[in-house]
Structure to design on (355 residues):
């Protein structure tokens, strides 16, 4: 009997120790390493376990811009929400594709890159409809931008993006494209007549600047500073933070601050990757993507004001168009809406104009 009781007590002790040991692989917030195909797991705030993955984020702009900040912001939020399971690596200036923006988007379509932030102008190389965002004077202000891109128009253009096999996480901002030059202030449309301007590679932008009287050309952005310095070009057009990042104020005297042409940024994820995620992780990714895009818009607009103030203080002449002058430019470019209707589609144009 004594031997039997001793055996029972020993068995009970073993069972107690086993219960206290637990599972060493399920600690809260732990990561085990891995890549985009999954690996270990980590727990989020609610205790849900997520596979550990590393996602690559590519964007057009350089490391010190709010484009790259958006990737870092998104990565921080997703990592926190998943207990460290997801890591986002930021590759600015399209490092993964030797600076080629089009190939950067193609990488996300193919799934060799997980995340992308590129402007609608670059996306229009794949789907011309996406150039609808850059119709002349489509937006009257930043408030108008937000109302349209966060509403039905944003949903309509988002469906086009997702038709490329991508998942749209958010619509961020490249901004209004302001014109600089070294010849004269542009206060009315006649002041633009004959100016040699470097314009981004878009048929729509080229058509608009033709109607405004500019003698425009396309050129690689890396060549523009030297071209402005030597007089090959009188001016260029770009969002202010982009132009300032290239030290354009050193070789330009005048800037026209207007709402003539606008660029957005599509923040996307490879569609197959998104579809493979659990509903819980999809919800986290969508919420963090939207928040990161909104944060980026705020940073871009703050940068706009800072650059404008810096340029004014450095001696550049800043021109803000009068309502009458802006209307003259708008009326001159209105035919673009009809000329590009077949490409952009009347339905998509109407989603933005309400007409």
């Amino acid at each position: 009997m004594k031997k039997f009781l001793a055996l029972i007590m020993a068995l009970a002790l073993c069972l107690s120790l086993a219960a206290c040991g637990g599972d060493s692989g399920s600690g809260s917030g732990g990561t085990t390493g891995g890549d985009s195909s999954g690996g270990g797991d980590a727990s989020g705030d609610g205790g849900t376990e997520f596979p550990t993955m590393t996602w690559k984020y590519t964007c057009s702009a350089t490391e010190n811009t709010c484009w790259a900040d958006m990737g870092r912001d998104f990565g921080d939020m997703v990592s926190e929400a998943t207990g460290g399971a997801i890591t986002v690596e930021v590759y600015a200036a399209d490092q993964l594709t030797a600076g080629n923006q089009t190939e950067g988007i193609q990488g996300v379509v193919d799934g060799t890159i997980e995340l992308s932030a590129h402007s609608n102008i670059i996306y229009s190389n794949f789907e011309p409809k996406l150039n609808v965002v850059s119709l002349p004077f489509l937006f009257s202000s930043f408030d108008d931008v937000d109302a349209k891109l966060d509403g039905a128009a944003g949903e309509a253009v988002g469906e086009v993006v997702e038709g490329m096999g991508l998942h749209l996480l958010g619509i961020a901002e490249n901004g209004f494209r302001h014109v600089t030059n070294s010849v004269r202030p542009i206060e009315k449309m006649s002041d633009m007549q004959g100016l040699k301007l470097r314009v981004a590679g878009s048929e729509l932008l080229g058509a608009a600047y033709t109607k405004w009287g500019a003698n425009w050309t396309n050129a690689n952005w890396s060549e523009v500073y030297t071209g402005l310095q030597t007089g090959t070009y009188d001016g260029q057009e770009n969002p202010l933070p982009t132009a300032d990042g290239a030290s354009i104020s050193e070789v330009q005297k005048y800037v026209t601050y207007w709402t003539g042409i606008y660029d957005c940024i599509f923040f996307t994820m490879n569609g197959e990757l998104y579809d493979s995620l659990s509903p819980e992780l999809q919800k986290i990714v969508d919420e963090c993507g939207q928040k990161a895009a909104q944060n980026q818009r705020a940073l871009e607009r703050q940068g706009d004001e800072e650059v404008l103030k810096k340029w004014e203080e450095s001696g550049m002449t800043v021109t803000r168009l009068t309502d009458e002058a802006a209307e003259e430019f708008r009326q001159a470019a209105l035919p673009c809406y009809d000329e590009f209707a077949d490409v952009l589609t009347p339905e998509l144009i109407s989603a933005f104009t309400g007409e």
